[in-house]
Recover the amino acids of this structure.
C-alpha cells in the first residue's frame, strides 16, 4: 500500500538512526573480544574505556536497536495487514520521544557519564538524565502501541467476521507484555534511581531495584525475540516457498508467551540473597514452561520449512534441507532467517542450562552467559533485524538494494562468527572466566600476577568469532548505507511477504481473545512477585550508598560530612 | 492437531520431564542447592574466619571496591565451610573456581552457601559482577592446606 510522507519519514528515521548507532555498538563488541583475549592490555582505546564501551554495546544493541526495530516492524505489519496508517499523533510523538531518549543516552555514554552497563545496577550511579533518557525511549514505544490499538479497533468495526491476522496478534502480544513489564522498570528508574542519583535521596534498597529490573529484564528478551517469531511464522514460510503448517499453533505460542514471560524474571537472580529458595524453584519450573512455546515454534517453523523443501523436490529425511533457497540473492531474506534459526537451536539449549536451578551455579555471570545470549539476541533476533531492516528500507523508501551479493552472504559470515564467539565464551565460562570484565588488564595479561593461562585458548576463539562478526557487520553497513543514500527508483510503499496457512483450521475461540490471557499473566505475576517482594522487605535493608565507577568513596558520606561540617558552629 | 504434532508434543514434554527430574534429584537426593536468605544485620559487616569445630568453619566475607576481605582464606582439607557474604559498597560477584560456590554480594543483604573442600590446593575467588574501574583486579583465594 502507498503511504503518506510523514509516515514514510518516521519509518525511515526509525530504521536509519539505530542502524547508524549500531556501528558504534558493533565496534565495541569487536574491541571487547580483543581486550578479553589479552591482545589489548589497556584500560581504554581511542578514549573509550572497556566498561564504557560495554555500556554502549549493551544499551545500543540490546535496548535501542531492538526497541526501534520492534516499533518500526510493528508499524509495517499493522499497516500491511490492516491497510491503514496509525494516527499521526501516535507515530510522530512516539518517534520523537524515542529519538530524544536515545540521543540523551548516547551523549551521556560518550561523555562517560553513564558507564554502569545496560543493567545500571545501583548503587553504581549514572547521571540522572540517563534514567530519564531510557524512560523516554520506552514510553515512546508505548505510544506507538496506543496508536495501533486505535487502528485495529477501526479495522475491527469494518471487518467483523475476519480473524485477527497472526502478525497483528503477535505484535499486540509483544507490546502488551512489554507494557506490563516496563512499569516496574519505569518505577525503578524514575521514582527510585533518578531522585537518588540527582542527590535528593540517599538510601536505596538495592535488592528491590534488582528485583524490579529483572521483572522487566526477562520480558525484555522476549520483546527482542517476538518480532523475529512473527517473521518466522508469517514471512519465512512464504519466502522459502512453503506454507505455514498451523496457524492455531502459531497463535497459541504467542499467547503462551504473554502469560509466561513476566513472572520468570527471578531466574536471573538464582545466585542472589533475598529471594527465597522456594521462589527460585518455582521460577525454574515456570521457565521450563516458557520453553514450550519455543519448542512449538521449532516444530511449526521446521514443518513449514520441510514443506517448502519437499515442494522444491527434496527427498528423504534430510534431503529437503539442501533444497531450501540458500544463497539466493533474489531471496536473500531466507539466508537471514535460516542462519538465525540454526544459531537459535543452540541458544535455546544453552538457555535451558541457565534455567536449571542449581546448574545455574556453574555458569552464572561467567562467559557462558554472553555465549548463550549471542546465539539468541545476536542470532535470530539480530539477523531478522538486519534482513528486515534493509528489506523495509528499500520498500518504504522506494530504493533498490545496493550490493545485493553482499547482502546475501552477510548472514552466513555472521552465523559462523557467532558460533565461534559463543563457543569461546561458553567454554571459557565453564572454566570460570568472568563476564563483564576487562580480562586483558589482568587475567589474560602475562605481565599480571592474576594471569591465568587456561583462559587464553577460549578467549582467542571468541576473538576470531568476534572479528568475523565485525567483518559481516561492516559489509552489511556498506550495503545498507549505500542503499539508504541512493536515489529513489520506485514508489514508496509498505509491503510484506505474506504466508498462507496449509489448512483452513477451525478457529478456536480462546485463541482469538487476548483478555483471559492477560488476566492469567497478571495473576501469575502476582503469585510470583508478591512472595518475592515480601522477601525483599524481610531480608534486606536500604543502605546509604552512591558510587561512581572510578572511586570507592561513598558519595552520600562526602555529602553528609560536608553538611555536618557546615553546620558546626565555630 | 495431526499425528506429527502430537508426537512432537509428547517428545518435548518427555525431554522437559527428564530435565525436571534431574533438578529435583540434585536438590533432594544430592542436596545441591542455590544460596539461602539470611535476614540483614549490620554485624555481618565485620569480616572473620571462625573455626567452629574440627571440620567446620564460618567465614564472613566483605566484598568491596576492589578486594575481598579477607583476601586469603585458609582452611583444612576435608572441612565444611559456611560462607556469609555481604558488600560494603556496590554489587560484586563471588565465584570460587572448581566449586559450586557462585554468589552475588549485594549491599543491604547477606548471602550464604555451604561447601566442602576436599582437595588440597589454591582456589581462586573471582569477582564476576562489574563493580567499577578496578573490577578486573578483584580476586581472592581459598587455600586448602593443613592449618597447624
Ligand atoms: C559485532 C559483533 C559482536 C561482538 C564481537 C560481541 C561481543 C561481545 C562480548 C565479547 C561480550 C561480553 C563482554 C563482557 O562480558 O565482558 C558482549 C556482551 C554483550 N553483547 Fe555483544 N557482541 C556483538 C554483537 C552483539 C549484538 C548484535 C547484540 C544484541 C543485539 C549484543 C548484545 C550484547 C549484550 C546485551 C551484552 C552484555 C552486556 C553486559 O554484560 O552489560 N552483542 N558482546
Ligand atoms: Cu530471562
Ligand atoms: Cu567486585
Amino acid at each position: 500500500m502507498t503511504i503518506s510522507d510523514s509516515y514514510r519519514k518516521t519509518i525511515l528515521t526509525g530504521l536509519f538512526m539505530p542502524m547508524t548507532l549500531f556501528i558504534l555498538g558493533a565496534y565495541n563488541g569487536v574491541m571487547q573480544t580483543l581486550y578479553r583475549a589479552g591482545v589489548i592490555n589497556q584500560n581504554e582505546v581511542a578514549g573509550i574505556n572497556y566498561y564504557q564501551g560495554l555500556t554502549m554495546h549493551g544499551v545500543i544493541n540490546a535496548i535501542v536497536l531492538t526497541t526501534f526495530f520492534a516499533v518500526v516492524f510493528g508499524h509495517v505489519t499493522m499497516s500491511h495487514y490492516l491497510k491503514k496508517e496509525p494516527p499521526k499523533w501516535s507515530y510522530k510523538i512516539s518517534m520523537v520521544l524515542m529519538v530524544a531518549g536515545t540521543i540523551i543516552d548516547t551523549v551521556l555514554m560518550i561523555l562517560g557519564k553513564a558507564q554502569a552497563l545496560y543493567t545500571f545496577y545501583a548503587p553504581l550511579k549514572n547521571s540522572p538524565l540517563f534514567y530519564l533518557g531510557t524512560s523516554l525511549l520506552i514510553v515512546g514505544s508505548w505510544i506507538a502501541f496506543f496508536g495501533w490499538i486505535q487502528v485495529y479497533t477501526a479495522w475491527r468495526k469494518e471487518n467483523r467476521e475476519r480473524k485477527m491476522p497472526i502478525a497483528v496478534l503477535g505484535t499486540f502480544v509483544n507490546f502488551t507484555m512489554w507494557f506490563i513489564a516496563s512499569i516496574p522498570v519505569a518505577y525503578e528508574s524514575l521514582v527510585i534511581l533518578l531522585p537518588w542519583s540527582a542527590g535528593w535521596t540517599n538510601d536505596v534498597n538495592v535488592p528491590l531495584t534488582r528485583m524490579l529490573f529483572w521483572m522487566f529484564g526477562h520480558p525484555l528478551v522476549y520483546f527482542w525475540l517476538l518480532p523475529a517469531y512473527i517473521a518466522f511464522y508469517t514471512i519465512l514460510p512464504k519466502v522459502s516457498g512453503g506454507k505455514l503448517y498451523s496457524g492455531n499453533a502459531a497463535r497459541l505460542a504467542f499467547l503462551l508467551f504473554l502469560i509466561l514471560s513476566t513472572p520468570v524474571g527471578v531466574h536471573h537472580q538464582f545466585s542472589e540473597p533475598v529471594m527465597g529458595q522456594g521462589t527460585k524453584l518455582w521460577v525454574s519450573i515456570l521457565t521450563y514452561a516458557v520453553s514450550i512455546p519455543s519448542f512449538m515454534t521449532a516444530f511449526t517453523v521446521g514443518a513449514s520449512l520441510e514443506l517448502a523443501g519437499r515442494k522444491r523436490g527434496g527427498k528423504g529425511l534430510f534431503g529437503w534441507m539442501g533444497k531450501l533457497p540458500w544463497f539466493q540473492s533474489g531471496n536473500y531474506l531466507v539466508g537471514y532467517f535460516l542462519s538465525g534459526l540454526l544459531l537459535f537451536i543452540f541458544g535455546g539449549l544453552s538457555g535451558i542450562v541457565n534455567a536449571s536451578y542449581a546448574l545455574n551455579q556453574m555458569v552464572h555471570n561467567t562467559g557462558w552467559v554472553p555465549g548463550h545470549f549471542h546465539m539468541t539476541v545476536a542470532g535470530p533476533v539480530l539477523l531478522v533485524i538486519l534482513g528486515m531492516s534493509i528489506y523495509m528500507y528499500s520498500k518504504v523508501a522506494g530504493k533498490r538494494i545496493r550490493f545485493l551479493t553482499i547482502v546475501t552472504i552477510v548472514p552466513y559470515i555472521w552465523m559462523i562468527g557467532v558460533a565461534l564467539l559463543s563457543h569461546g565464551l561458553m567454554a571459557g565460562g565453564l572454566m570460570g572466566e568472568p563476564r563483564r570484565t576487562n580480562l586483558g588488564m589482568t587475567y589474560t595479561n602475562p605481565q599480571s600476577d592474576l594471569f591465568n593461562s587456561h583462559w587464553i585458548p577460549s578467549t582467542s576463539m571468541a576473538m576470531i568469532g568476534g572479528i568475523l562478526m565485525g567483518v559481516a557487520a561492516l559489509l552489511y553497513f556498506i550495503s545498507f548505507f549505500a542503499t539508504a543514500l541512493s536515489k529513489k527508483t520506485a514508489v514508496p510503499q509498505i509491503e510484506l511477504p505474506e504466508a498462507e496457512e496449509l489448512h483452513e483450521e477451525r478457529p478456536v475461540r480462546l485463541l482469538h481473545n487476548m483478555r483471559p490471557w492477560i488476566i492469567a499473566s497478571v495473576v501469575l505475576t502476582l503469585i510470583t512477585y508478591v512472595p518475592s517482594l515480601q522477601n525483599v522487605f524481610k531480608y534486606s535493608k536500604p543502605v546509604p550508598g552512591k558510587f561512581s565507577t572510578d572511586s570507592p568513596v561513598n558519595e552520600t558520606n562526602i555529602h553528609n560530612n560536608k553538611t555536618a561540617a557546615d553546620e558546626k558552629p565555630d | 492437531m495431526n499425528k506429527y504434532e502430537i508426537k512432537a508434543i509428547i517428545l518435548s514434554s518427555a525431554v522437559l520431564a527428564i530435565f525436571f527430574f534431574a533438578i529435583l534429584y540434585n536438590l533432594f537426593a544430592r542436596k545441591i542447592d542455590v544460596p539461602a536468605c539470611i535476614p540483614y544485620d549490620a554485624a555481618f559487616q565485620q569480616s572473620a574466619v571462625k573455626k567452629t569445630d574440627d571440620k567446620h568453619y564460618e567465614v564472613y566475607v566483605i566484598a568491596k571496591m576492589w578486594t575481598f576481605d579477607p583476601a586469603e582464606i585458609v582452611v583444612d582439607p576435608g572441612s565444611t565451610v559456611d560462607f556469609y557474604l555481604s558488600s560494603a559498597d556496590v554489587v560484586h560477584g563471588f565465584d570460587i573456581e572448581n566449586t559450586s560456590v557462585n554468589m552475588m554480594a549485594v549491599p543491604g543483604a547477606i548471602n550464604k552457601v555451604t561447601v566442602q573442600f576436599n582437595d588440597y590446593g589454591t582456589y581462586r575467588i573471582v569477582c564476576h559482577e562489574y563493580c567499577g574501574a578496578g573490577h578486573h583486579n578483584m580476586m581472592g583465594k581459598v587455600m586448602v592446606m593443613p592449618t597447624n
Observations:
- The CA atoms of residues 64 and 88 of chain B lie 5 Å apart.
- Residues A 26, 29-30, 32-33, 36, 54, 57-58, 61-62, 65, 117-118, 370, 374, 377-378, 382, 421, 435-437, 462, 466, 469-470, 473 surround protoporphyrin IX containing FE (ligand 1) (CB under 6 Å).
- Chain B has two domains: 1-32, 36-144.
